[in-house]
């Protein structure tokens, strides 16, 4: 079994097209455990997303929140919200990602009255629990949509009918009273976070400090700390180290370069420091990680 990796652009927007212009809908029977480092990394998209944890437990980081979602629970992620999923074991999360225009054309009465208010609200996500009646109705309808995608190719009309049923229930229970300014604030903060993260991605091989990260968006060091901590629950420097370790880990099993060379190429000041940080993060030495990965590749069925 191979691993999957999510692809994003410089703003962390997911680059894959979800469906097509004629039918902007996609179904993904994802298992988080099959992705690189057992996580579906930070990304966002303009489309709406619904998912259900069908097996296992998913750690979902959405907007500025960290959520533990257990089997049977579901989640709605609003448009343009930065999110990430992690798992400690096999965790199956079938999900659908679709353009809001699938429900109704922009500028139509339906879109303006029932869809735009949700997109422009201050709510980045909504959890669905099976013990809450209206939320359980949504979970059951999502299950029907997932089954439909797996069983029938000619399912577009019924899929849209079910989506409209979900949206009808969802809209009736969605709290729109807090207005939109908070979401605009979140989006502004998210935009700065994305620029700083991309700065790290582009310059991780170089010497980087908290000051240089903050300077990439012209804010103070304390401002950069606040944005990272509130959005992704980690400091900028800790994120830099994790990113360097991830790049180093990939080089360990895709190249034959020495550990010291990889440490230098990924921005670590010494191989000793690199090895200590690697063991802290992956609970094994770089050499052990390389052998484990290579053995896994050799034992995969042809």
What's the short version?
It is built from 10 helices and 9 strands.
Structure description:
It is a single chain. The chain has 10 helices and 9 strands. Residues 179-185 have low confidence and may be disordered. It has 302 residues and is α+β, with helices and mostly antiparallel strands. It has a 5-stranded antiparallel beta sheet, with helices on one face. A 4-stranded antiparallel beta sheet has the order 2-7-4-5. Helix 4 packs across helix 6 (221-232) and helix 4 crosses helix 7 (236-254). It has helices spanning 109-119, 133-151, 156-173, 181-203, 210-215, 221-232, 236-254, 259-265, 271-282, 286-299; strands at residues 25-31, 39-43, 48-52, 57-62, 65-70, 74-77, 83-87, 92-98, 125-128. The N and C termini lie close together (10 Å). Helix content is 47%, strand content 16%.
Largest sheet: 5 strands, antiparallel
- Enumerate how many helices there are, as a single number: 10
What is the terminal-to-terminal distance? 10 Å
Globally, the shape reads globular
Secondary structure: number of strands: 9
- The largest sheet has its strands arranged as 1-8-3-6-9
Low-confidence stretches: 179-185
The helix content is 40-55%
What's the rounded overall pLDDT mean? 89
Overall structural class, as computed from helix and strand content, comes to alpha+beta
H and E order? EEEEEEEEHEHHHHHHHHH
Strand content: 15-25%
Radius of gyration: 21 Å
């Amino acid at each position: 079994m191979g691993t999957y990796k999510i692809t994003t652009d410089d703003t962390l927007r997911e680059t894959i097209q979800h469906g097509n212009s004629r039918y902007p809908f996609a179904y993904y029977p994802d298992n988080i455990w099959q992705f690189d480092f057992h996580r579906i990394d930070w990304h966002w998209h303009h489309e709406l997303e619904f998912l259900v944890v069908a097996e296992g437990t998913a750690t979902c980081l959405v907007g500025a929140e960290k959520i533990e979602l257990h089997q049977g629970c579901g989640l709605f992620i609003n448009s343009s919200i930065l999110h990430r999923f992690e798992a400690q074991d096999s965790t199956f999360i079938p999900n659908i990602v679709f353009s809001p225009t699938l429900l109704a054309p922009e500028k139509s009465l339906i879109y303006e009255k029932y869809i735009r208010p949700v997109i422009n609200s201050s709510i980045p996500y909504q959890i669905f629990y099976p013990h809450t009646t209206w939320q359980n109705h949504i979970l059951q309808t999502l299950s029907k949509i997932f089954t439909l995608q797996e069983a029938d190719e000619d399912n577009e009309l019924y899929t849209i009918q079910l989506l409209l049923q979900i949206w009808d229930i969802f809209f009736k229970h969605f709290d729109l009273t807090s207005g939109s300014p908070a979401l605009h604030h979140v989006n502004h903060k998210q935009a700065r976070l994305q620029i700083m993260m991309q700065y790290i991605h582009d310059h991780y091989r170089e010497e980087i400090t908290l000051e240089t990260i903050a300077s990439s968006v012209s804010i103070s060091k304390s401002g950069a700390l606040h944005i990272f901590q509130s959005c992704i629950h980690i400091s900028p420097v800790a994120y830099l180290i994790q990113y360097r370790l991830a790049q180093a880990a990939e080089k360990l099993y895709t190249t034959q370069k020495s550990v010291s060379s990889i440490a230098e190429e990924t921005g670590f000041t010494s191989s000793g420091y690199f090895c200590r940080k690697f063991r802290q993060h992956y609970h094994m030495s770089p050499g052990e990680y390389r052998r484990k990965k290579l053995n896994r590749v050799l034992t995969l069925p042809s």
